[in-house]
Each structure stands twice: as C-alpha cells, then as structure tokens.
Write a structure and sequence with these properties.
4 copies of one chain form a homotetramer.
Chain A: H1 3-6, H2 20-29, E1 32-42, E2 48-57, E3 63-66, E4 68-71, H3 78-90, E5 106-111, E6 119-120, E7 126-134, E8 147-151, H4 153-156, H5 159-163, H6 169-179
Parallel strand pairs in A: 1-7, 5-6
Antiparallel strand pairs in A: 1-2, 1-4, 2-3, 2-8, 5-7
Protein name (chains A, B, C, D): ADP-ribose pyrophosphatase
Region (Disordered) (chains A, B, C, D): 1-20
Biased composition (Basic and acidic residues) (chains A, B, C, D): 1-13
C-alpha cells in the first residue's frame, strides 16, 4: 500500500468515478475498502510451496516488495475486485483460484497514524480483506512492477525480505503463512 | 440495514465528520464499510442457546427485526466499531465478548441493486464484516428499538421471523447459525 | 457416513492396518478422525455454481445422496486424506483444488447416540473436518456410487434432496453453502 | 504434547476407558483427536493483551512451557473437551469463553516422525483442533504445572520462550497470535 503500488491504478477509473478532489476528501473522512491477495503456488495436496512478491522501485529509488493490493470499487463484488487486481498485477493468464468463501484469513487495518494497528498507510485509512490465492498459470508482472519473485515460505519470512515490505505487508504475509501452516 | 436502523446514528457524528452532502456523494461512489453483529447467549461450553434480535417499526409502520449493524468510522478500528454499535443498540451493560480475531465469519455485500448478491441496501453499497458476539450482561434496547427478543436458533430460522428481517439479514442470521453449528 | 459409504473403503487398507477386531474396538472407545469434502464447481470469480453429490443405494434399497467422506489414516496428513478420498470417489482426473489452509469451515461431530449433535453415525463417534473443494476436471463416480449429480446451491438445499442425505450430511451441505455465501 | 503434559491425565479415565495396552495399540495405528487451547487475556475491545503459558519441568529436569492441550474422549464434544482441559490446567474459576463456533483457527498435526509437519509428538500421531480461548477469571496452575505465566504477545514470540516450547507448540502459539492480529 505504497504510493507506487496504487498510483498506476488511478487512470483506469471509469467515467463517473470519483474525481481527484472527491477521492482526496473521501480519503480524509472514510475508511476505504481494499483487498490484499497473497499469490501462492501449491502442490497437488494444496500445500503452499512458494509465495509471489512484486518487486517495485519507490519514487525515492528504494527497492520494495509488495503483495497484490487494491481498492474495491463502487458496485464491485469483493471477489471481482480480487480477480481484477490479480489480473492487473500478474497478467491475464495467471489463472488465479479465487476463494469460494468470502471469509478472509484476516482483516488488515491500515491507519494513516502509525502505531494504532501494525499496518500503516500515510495516505488514508484503508481496511483490507486479505486472502491467500493459489495461481496455477503464467504470471507476468505488469505495469510498474519490475519483477515477480517466487520465494519459499521460509524465504518470505526472512528478515531481509521483511524489511523490503512496507506498511505492514511483511506482517500480513507472515499471517498468511501462519494461516496455511507454513510460518517458519 | 434499513433507514430506520441507521438514521438515529447520524447525530452522534463528531464535528469534522462528513456533511449530509458529502455522505450522499460517498454513498453513490464508494463502498462503505460496515459491521454486523449477531448477539448471542451461550452456555458454559460456548454453545449458542439464544440469539438476540432488535424489534423496530419502519417509517411505513411495518414491524421488522434486525441485527446490530452500523458503519465503521474514519480512524476507528473494526473491533471498536463493533463495541460501539453493540453498546448503542443493547445498552452499556450488555458485556459483549468482542472476538479476539478480526476474521469475520462472512462478509455481507449489500448492493443498491437487488440481485447482485443476496444482500440489499437501497441507499448504498455497504460491505459488512459479520461477527457472532456473545453477550453476558443485561441487554436493553436503546433509541429507536422497541424491544430486544431472544430467540432459539430454531426460532430465528423460522419462516415468519425470516420474513420480518430485511435486506438479507435473515440470511446473514442463518449463516451465523451455520457457523456456530446451530442451523436447524 | 452410512455403512454403504464406508464399506468399500475397508479392503484398501494396507497390511499392518487395524484388524477388523481392532477397528471394532477403536470405534467403541475413541473418536475417529474423518474428513468431509463438499465438491463444487466455481466460476472465474470463485463463486460456487454447482455442488456435487454422490448417489448411492443403501443395503435396504433406498437411494441416498452423500458428500465425499472418509477416515484419516495413521501417519496421513489431513490434506492427503482429502485428496485420497476425492480421487477415490470422483476418479483420478477430478483435479481437486485442495485448500491451502488446514482451517476447516466447520467440524462435524458424528455421535453414535442421536441428538447429542445434529450429526449421527450409528457405528462410531467420528469427528470430521469439513472443507469445500472446487474440482475443475472430469468427475466420474467410482466404486459403489451410481452417479455424481451436480446441483445448484438452491437445488442442494431443497427439502427432497435434504431428505435423501443421512446422518446430518444435509445440514453439513447447507453449512458449506452458508460458508460460501450461497445458502438460499 | 510432551509426556509430562499428558501423564497426569491418565488416571482420570473412567472405568470402561481404554486399557494401557489398548491405548498403546491405538497410538500406533490411529490418529488421535486432540484440542489445543491458547489461553488469553483480552481488553474490552477483544484485543489480546496477554497469553498464558504453563510452566513445567520435564522428567529430564528441563523447564518447558506449554499450551493447554489434551485428548478428546469417546462420546465427548470438542467444546466439552476444551472446557475440561482448561479447567484441569487452569483451575475451576478460570471462566473460559469457549468459542461459539467449532471452526478452529488451525489444525495442528503432530506426527511421530519429525519433519512431516512442523509439529511432533514422539508417542503418537495426534491431530489437534486449536482455539484461542479468552479467560476472564482467576487462573491457578493445577497438577504438574509449576506456574502459569502471562506474557505479552511480543514476549510469547521471543526466541527464548519459543525454545522452551516443544513439539511445535511455539509455532502454534505464533499462529494463534497471527490469527488475532498480534504476531510481532
């Protein structure tokens, strides 16, 4: 939920969507609904063998790793938002297995004020429904992402990787690994 | 999520909160974040023995039953919103046991257009995190509610009771009962 | 969890597995660990469009419908037991998507005494971890099943279909539909 | 799930329960059903502020920390087993809030062979349903436990504390903290 992670998504808004002014006001007055997806590779028994992280460069030139993340739009179902953001970040042939149940494994509350929760987004108060999403197809990072790296659950929890994730997404990733029984 | 359920909550908004115009615009352009709580009585083993439903009269003079439901405010944690709405609807000594985990049992997506999902709210697109909340204290319906009725899980799933719940809350109640193993 | 549902599974036990006497004794003294799988077809957004039910004839000549269900063996992971039972009942090319997380949507406790819980198994005390499992391949009923019928969530909750399910599996199926947001 | 953790529980078995020989045979041929409870203190909003760990001395004289854990008996409901083990380990006035839903936050599979899963029990194959259980009363360690220590979530995830937990319970504790949003 860094600026870089969200900026490229702005232009796709259809006509009638919020103007920059209106979105600015909403961000200062309402919690915004997001989804976070943790893309994973699973084996035949459903066991997670790898987790996919997007590699980006922040405006400050720092490398950062990120989950698939984005806003739920007006009149869009959560499951459709999940699919849309995964296709936008991983490409059209990632073949994601969107969960049958809307029950997220956790709810990440990104506050503009650091320290209220472990998640932080300086731009806004975003509440994100978080899902683990197996993908079985070809994943190609899109738009602003330089690369998509597949890490083992052990590598994903590594201190260095965690440092490269911002806003609490490193924690969210480890919560996902805990949920699938792969927290190191 | 009827008008009656939400109207009395408007006055409590602090200064700086959305103006009626702004909330009107937000409702037409963004999904709003809500919580739904299903208040229950449990026995010593945690088994649900009764579910609490608020009884209200709609502006049209029709009796309706409702769950505890309301918006999550800017810079408010989901668990604090749950506590606030339960205290507002059930009184200050209900002694709710707010869940330790933010994982809801389901996510109810109320669309302004009927039929997109089983939930419907003509005013807005509301996405609600739904929790079962045991309450062990004295519950006294507040404000616009006429009564709080404690029903057995079987009574709560009864056709007549279901008819008295609007916007899909009857379904949400049955999903809650399914989650706790008490769907008849 | 009828006799017919389980009998064909007995012969497959490897050498060293429990003798008929030993299993008989275990059944009278220990809760046995089972898995229940609700096979579903999902659309691109993960929404459940159909649920698969096995059609069998009981020894008494009565038609019955059943979920995929079976015991977890010694030194077998729950996810491997899920895969094994799905392949045994739906064939080798069903392509099940075994859940990445071991968290079941519910735990069904089949008691030998009716009425303790909504689930009943006259032979034993079985505790079953229940999962919704999307299958994307060709499903062919195996062994003792006459057919595999794909029903819509609405049809699956129909009174007549529910009557054809025994031991509480009709309820378990409706709980699964509640979990995926498709309870009628 | 060390020997010490379970031994004191043997004498309480009612007449008709498994003989030592029979339990020995069951342990070598069947997965046994267990429950694990993570006792926590929560604040008014349900946020976990402390986690309770039992302090024991192993037969080898080593200090170890443990969760509340024990077997589900024949004809016993999972929620009753949870209550029984909590009362046995924390005393009769711990006032546990047994979860309304049977859905565990995870399933811990303790294998007799190390490395199959992250959990290990040299005596047996035990499959444990794991729950976070808020306790609001007075907790007094019973029987073989020397003490019950209340740690913050941060302290509980500390490397030294983790080292004092055996069989994978340190991981299970961190999974519990991930589930309640308190993984450091």
């Amino acid at each position: 939920m860094t600026d870089t992670a969200d900026f490229p998504r702005e232009p796709e808004r259809p006509a009638g969507w919020l103007s920059p002014d209106a979105i600015q006001q909403a961000r200062a007055t309402l919690p915004l609904l997001y989804v976070d997806a943790v893309p994973v590779r699973v084996d035949e028994s459903g066991d997670v063998v790898a987790v996919g992280l997007l590699l980006r460069v922040t405006p400050e030139g720092v490398m950062s790793r990120a989950l698939v993340s984005g806003r739920v739009m007006y009149h869009e179902r959560v499951r459709d938002a999940l699919l849309r953001h995964i296709e936008k970040d991983l490409g059209p042939v990632a073949l994601p297995q969107i969960p049958a149940s809307p029950q997220p494994f956790t709810v990440a509350e990104y506050f503009p004020t650091p320290g209220v929760t472990p998640y932080h987004d300086p731009r806004q108060h975003a509440v994100s429904l978080a899902y683990v999403v197996p993908v079985s197809g070809d994943c190609r990072p899109q738009q602003d992402a330089l690369d998509l790296a597949w890490l083992t659950p052990e590598q994903a929890a590594d201190h260095q990787v965690q440092l490269e994730m911002t806003g609490g997404q490193g924690l969210l990733l480890r919560q996902a690994m805990a949920h699938v029984g792969r927290l190191p």
